[in-house]
Design goal:
Keywords: Signal. The chain is built from four helices and three strands; from the N terminus they run H-E-H-H-E-H-E. With 104 residues, it is an alpha/beta fold. It has a single domain, classed as Rossmann fold. The chain has a three-stranded parallel sheet. Helix 4 links the parallel strand 2 and strand 3. The protein starts with a helix and ends with a strand.
Amino acid sequence: MSFGLGMIIYLIGSLSCVSNLEQFNVDRSLQLSRITESFKDDDWLTSIISYYLLKLIRFKFYLRTIQWKTTNESNTKELINQLKGSFQNAHSDSYQARLIIDCS
């Protein structure tokens, strides 16, 4: 799961108070080496969004990655493409969804 249990509980508590929210942005920073384990079998918050944000129009997920100088560029590109595909598959609902990845 890309978020710890404490963050999920916080998100649910917060989003249950703003059910009319039309735009929802998430900003997450993570080491590139941990992305595979963090987002494996992840639903990219779709279960929470579909339950609590019924009027959502736009969802943006900013993923900022920290990579080491020894990181293989072709592996990084492949991983980014996998993440984008997974994100698009998860968010094919009635709202606009965008994944923005910043590799630094």
